[in-house]
Amino acid sequence: LRLVAVVRAVLEGEKAAVLKRDHHLPLSFHRRQEELKFNLGLQRLQHRIHEIQALRDEGPGRDGAVQSPMAPRELPNLILEAVKELEAVKQQVLKRIQIWKRQQQLAGNGAIFEENLAPLQKRCESLLEVYFQLQQQVMAVSTELGPELLPRLLERFNEVLSSLVKR
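User: That's the sequence. What structure does it adopt?
Assistant: Structure tokens below.
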């Protein structure tokens, strides 16, 4: 029993030294921070979609109002920013999927593994919902985007969807 107590004390000392050196925060803190970053990215993306919708609704012929001269130039830039944000949020989801896969591998060696896929599934579903909303907005304004921008946007949309499905 004394040997066990000595080994335990040594291991606790090493654990304290490692935590002191690396200044690690609890894993739950990192997960919460990651979740907040994802939600913020998703909210920014939804805001962009609402901006695109509002800009589209300002179009010519609405209540006799004339379209603002900035609107045709703003719309492609706004859509490009939204697609960039979509790709950034996709990267966050793919990173979380990769972490889950790695944890699953480590579980084979006895590491603790949380098998609950509900949060990961919720992330993917939220991202796909926003993805389809953005794609609808792009298709609705496809005539205003021009023949060179629309194919590039559609290609980027396909890449986002295919990378999510493949992983």
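The mean pLDDT is 83.
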